Amino acid sequence: MSKDVVSPPLGRGTRNAWKRKFLERAIAILLFLSSFLSILITAGIVAVLLFEAITFFVDVSFLEFITGTRWTPLFSSKQFGVLALVAGTTLTAVLAMVVALPLGLLSAIYLSEYSPDGVRRLVKPILEVLAGIPTVVYGYFALLFVTPILRGISGDIAVFNALSASIVMGIMILPMVSSLSEDAMRAVPRNLREAAYALGSTKLEVSTLVVVPAALSGIMSAFILAVSRAIGETMIVTIAAGQNPSFTLNPFVPIETMTAYIVQVSQGDAPAGSIEFKTIFAVALLLFAITLIMNLLSQYVVSRFREEYE
Q: pTM of the entire structure?
């Protein structure tokens, strides 16, 4: 006479394992959807820019746009040479880097190699507070504080100028350069420093000849990301640099950057659908391409100069 085999009830350990597996699968799906959503958003932005830019280039020659040096789409005699805006953007970004890169690297070396732990824990958060200040505050700081000082030094500096905007922009991105560079330096293994000290090197030699080269990939990545941040900055240049698109490298005169022009047209003076309105999408697409190239360059530098330590 056969008897039915009754399966034993699931133990608590088995149920808990099943719940953990289900939870891990749900979290994995959620993370995948989040990543996929970010890709969709990026693709949507690129699609909008491409579509509107293509309608702009139907009426305006791409060669004229990319090689012309006069930018007057809001005037009666319309010229669409975007190099005037590119020159203003390049000028402010380069001058900002002149301020941010040396100061950021020197502060990173101090925080990583020279400062006591208590000083570092106090100074680094204070330095990073600069990154949390709204850029509109930086813009008025440049216009109302830095510009009068510069005009007191030289009367040739206009009220709106690229120099004051660049100086303040360099101060704004200083925490990015300093913090990322300092993190890269502190990731260098301690035994490299100790080996250099054992050979009779001074602290300065260890810092500049051992630690900085070992952390070069992270430092270069910080520099490139800071340049991208400077290129994409909007409010500082809109407030302090002026709205005069001119193909010049003179930092004492008013200029206009690509981001400042987008803000100017977006205020509603140009009718939607007009050629003037479509220029912001062409400029935005060029700005997107420049920042994308900078980010790809940053990733290449990191992979090219990365040092592996065990």
A: 0.83
